[in-house]
Amino acid sequence: MFNDIGPLELVTIIVLAVLVFGPDKLPKVIQDVMRTVRKIREFSESAKQDIRNELGPEFKDFEFEDLNPKTFIRKQLDNDELGLKEIRNGFDLKKEMAEVTDAVHSRDTEASSSSSPSSSSSGGRIDMTKKPEDTGKDDRPPFDADAT
């Protein structure tokens, strides 16, 4: 419960408790706090036992810590009944991203080589980088003042 309290913090808490409650009332305060902590633990254990009894014998090894999503996932990954390790090891995100990047770069180089001015055939592709030839007529749609 108090695993992260160092010796300096403990001494500081004791000094503050002596200053706040006084040396004559401090033992009674400590007893009251310990009694309250014991009652809370007993109540908690009683509630856990009641829930286990209500769930039935198939949940006799049920642990309430498993309700924490991180604990549940860690347990399932360690259990490996679902074959998650094979799935996780079989999927290499860096390799997949490299393949996609290579595919995109190869398309870019193919598009730039096919749009060179020396090639007369576009291979069925439309080059969107070229400007259409100016035929002299306006290709814009007519302006409708009522529509706007």
List strands and helices in order, with pairings.
Elements: H1 7-21, H2 26-55, H3 69-79, H4 84-90, H5 93-114
How would you spell out the order of helices and strands?
HHHHH
Distance between termini? 69 Å
C-alpha geometry: elongated
Radius of gyration using CA atoms only? 37 Å
- State the total count of DSSP E strands: 0
Helix content: 55-70%
Enumerate how many helices there are, as a single number: 5
What is the mean pLDDT? 77
Question: Runs with pLDDT <50, length 5+?
Answer: 118-122
Major sheet:
none
Structural class: mainly alpha
Write down the domain tally: 2
Work out the strand percent.
under 5%
Brief summary of the model shown:
Residues 112-122 have a biased composition (Low complexity). Residues 99-110, 127-148 have a biased composition (Basic and acidic residues). The chain has 148 residues and is mainly α.
